[in-house]
Automatic annotation (TrEMBL), chain A:
Coiled coil: none annotated. It comes from the Bacteria. It comes from Nocardiopsis composta. Keywords: Cell membrane, Membrane, Transmembrane, Transmembrane helix, Transport. The chain crosses the membrane at residues 26-48, 60-84, 90-114, 155-176, 196-220. Belongs to the binding-protein-dependent transport system permease family. CysTW subfamily. One of its GO terms (biological process) is D-methionine transmembrane transport. InterPro entries: AA_ABC_Transporter_Permease, MetI-like, MetI-like_sf. PANTHER family: ABC TRANSPORTER PERMEASE, D-METHIONINE TRANSPORT SYSTEM PERMEASE PROTEIN METI-RELATED. It is found in: Cell membrane. This is D-methionine transport system permease protein. SUPFAM superfamilies: MetI-like (SSF161098). CDD domains: TM_PBP2 (cd06261).
TrEMBL record, chain B:
CDD domains: ABC_MetN_methionine_transporter (cd03258). Residues 2-241 form the ABC transporter domain. Keywords: Amino-acid transport, ATP-binding, Cell membrane, Membrane, Nucleotide-binding, Translocase, Transport. The lineage of its organism: Bacteria, Bacillati, Actinomycetota, Actinomycetes, Streptosporangiales. The keyword S-adenosyl-L-methionine does not apply. InterPro entries: AAA+_ATPase, ABC_transporter-like_ATP-bd, ABC_transporter-like_CS, ACT-like_dom_sf, MetN_ABC, MetN_ABC_transporter-like, NIL_domain, P-loop_NTPase. It holds the Pfam family ABC_tran. PANTHER family: AMINO ACID IMPORT ATP-BINDING PROTEIN, METHIONINE IMPORT ATP-BINDING PROTEIN METN. Part of the ABC transporter FtsEX involved in cellular division. Has ATPase activity. This is D-methionine transport system ATP-binding protein. One of its GO terms (molecular function) is ATP binding. Belongs to the ABC transporter superfamily. Homodimer. Forms a membrane-associated complex with FtsX. The keyword Transferase does not apply.
Length: 226, 322
């Protein structure tokens, strides 16, 4: 039996498994992205504004936030995942399944995204910030109407990098029972030597990453007026 | 209109202190264009930033339009700043906003309702000659156009005072000319008081009513441009009309603080029987008046009387030769 025939024969069953795996992956990545933005965006902005000479200088806050972010960034994701298992159990009630995986994924992606936000916001022209001060703008107005809009292309680029990183993290999460495409690749592809599943998951992961990047590039083109 | 008294600004560094402003008194009258000129590092920029308290002076007070800014709490200062426009060297436009939205920005900050904002933005763009660029983004504009947007934005909240931070330094000569003209027009039309800093003498010459020369954090010289030009040994006059030092015997440097209709030189030779030889000269249009400097050699028995005659006529006469 040629491989095409075998694939055709197995496809009905495989496609269902892959379909649900893809949904699980997207589910994990999407929710982790949401939490990364909710926490990472303000964190990244604070990393800039608490600078000496920043909008709200606070060297101590800056040092603490910087240290927290660095701890998050220095742990390999697979280690972080195991390290936060008890927190995951506390929050979700289990450490298995896609919902449980959202906890380590978010914790891993928040500091990653926060640093990217920091870099993007730091790029905003100081003269423009000064101009806003000279117009009598409040600090919160400067964040909302100057820093974020001016950094938007960079923020979107950072968001896409985070999504791509999350896709790869989610595959790792599969290794300890997180579900999704990574789980399929490891259980079916690696442990059961099933190349069909292995390559199918590889293709699907590539498509997801590619789609995220293209969407991101499109948005960046739309919001960038430099 | 702008009153700054005893301004000092000291930046404490690790090893030593840097004195950026060393006791500056600034007095800018209502409706005039006041130019501060000096080398980079002289403290001009710090001075300008102290006027709207982007930098808080270490000591001294600043009042604008009769209100002492240095005594205001944060909220009051924000409100006061809305009455002071500022133009920046690199334009400081928001790249994410269209021209119209950039001009509307200070109005948003001041809480002006949307409909009134749109009408005002239209007027302002008309005023600076960019009505057709309302929907463009700053990146699509030339430097001169960007600065026009910057000026329109600075005028949005109807300020009485405009601060200009090297507004033309990033522009080519022709564009500089047109921006200076615009500032001059706004000064005339709106009675706008303008305080500008520049490192170009030319800017002072073209549009300033008053000027100060700044060096090492303090004013070397300050006053009405025409008065300064008529002051012996004025740095401003020397910088506006750089004449080479002469080693010709019996040379004198003559400064014309205004234009003269009568033929002074021929009268001089006729009445005093002296020989007059022109060595060098420069005539410039300053603050709407033709003024100039002339190096001449005057020889003859009645030289003293001849020079006295010129002084009496209102020229500044200074021995310049050996």
């Amino acid at each position: 039996m040629s491989w095409t025939e075998e694939l055709a024969q197995r496809w009905p069953e495989m496609s269902e498994v892959l379909w649900y795996g893809t949904l699980d992956t997207l589910y994990m990545v999407l929710w982790a992205t949401v939490f990364s933005v909710l926490v990472g965006l303000p964190l990244g902005v604070l990393l800039v504004t608490t600078d000496r000479g920043g909008l709200t200088p606070a060297p101590l806050v800056k040092a603490v936030l910087g240290a927290v972010v660095n701890i998050g960034r220095s742990l390999p994701f697979i280690v972080l995942m195991v390290a936060v298992l008890s927190l995951t159990r506390l929050l979700i009630g289990t450490t298995l399944g896609p919902t449980a995986a959202i906890v380590p994924l978010s914790i891993g992606a928040i500091p990653f995204f926060a640093r990217l936000v920091e870099t993007a916001v730091r790029e905003v022209d100081r003269e423009v910030i000064e101009a806003a001060h000279a117009m009598g703008a409040r600090k919160l107005t400067i964040v909302g109407k100057v820093l974020l809009p001016e950094a938007l292309p960079g923020l979107v680029a950072g968001l896409i990098m985070t999504v791509v990183a999350l896709v790869s993290y989610s595959a790792m999460a599969g290794a300890i029972g997180g579900g999704g495409l990574g789980d399929i690749a490891i259980r079916e592809g690696y442990q059961r030597f099933d190349d069909y599943y292995l390559w199918a998951t590889v293709i699907l992961l590539v498509i997801i990453v590619q789609a995220a990047q293209s969407l991101g590039d499109f948005i960046i083109r739309r919001v960038s007026h430099r | 209109m702008i009153e700054a008294v005893g301004l000092r600004k000291v930046y404490p560094l690790k090893q030593r202190e840097v004195v950026a402003l060393d006791g500056v008194d600034l007095h800018v009258e209502q409706g005039e264009i006041f130019g501060v000129v000096g080398q980079s590092g002289a403290g001009k920029s710090t001075l300008l930033r102290c006027v709207n308290l982007l930098e808080r002076p270490t000591s001294g007070t600043v009042s604008v339009d009769g209100r002492e800014l240095t005594a205001l709490p944060a909220a009051g200062l924000r409100r006061a700043r809305r009455g002071i426009g500022m133009v920046h060297q690199h334009f400081a436009l928001l790249s994410s906003r269209t021209v119209a939205a950039n001009v509307a920005f200070p109005l948003e900050i001041a809480g002006v309702p949307r409909a009134r904002r749109a009408a005002r933005v239209g007027e302002l763009l008309e005023l600076v000659g960019l009505a057709d660029k309302a929907k463009a983004y700053p990146a699509q504009l030339s430097g001169g156009q960007k600065q026009r947007v910057g000026i329109a934005r600075a005028l949005a909240s109807d300020p009485k005072v405009l601060l200009s931070d090297e507004a033309t330094s990033a522009l080519d000569p022709a564009t500089t000319e047109s921006i200076l003209e615009l500032l001059r027009d706004l000064n005339h039309q709106l009675g706008l008081t303008i305080l500008l800093i520049t490192h170009e003498m030319d800017v002072i010459k073209r549009i300033c009513d008053s000027a100060a020369i700044m060096e090492n954090g303090s004013f070397r010289e300050a006053g009405k441009v025409l008065d300064l030009i008529g002051t012996p040994d004025s740095l401003l006059a020397a910088s506006l009309f750089p004449l080479p030092a002469t080693d010709v015997p019996d040379a004198v440097a003559l400064t014309y603080p205004r234009s003269f209709d009568e033929p002074l030189m021929s009268e001089l030779t006729r009445r005093f029987d002296v020989d007059v030889n022109v060595l060098g000269g420069a005539v410039e249009n300053v603050a709407g008046t033709s003024v100039g400097r002339l190096n001449v050699q005057v020889r003859g028995a009645n030289r003293g009387a001849a020079l006295r005659f010129l002084s009496d006529k209102g020229l500044l006469v200074r021995e310049a030769g050996r």
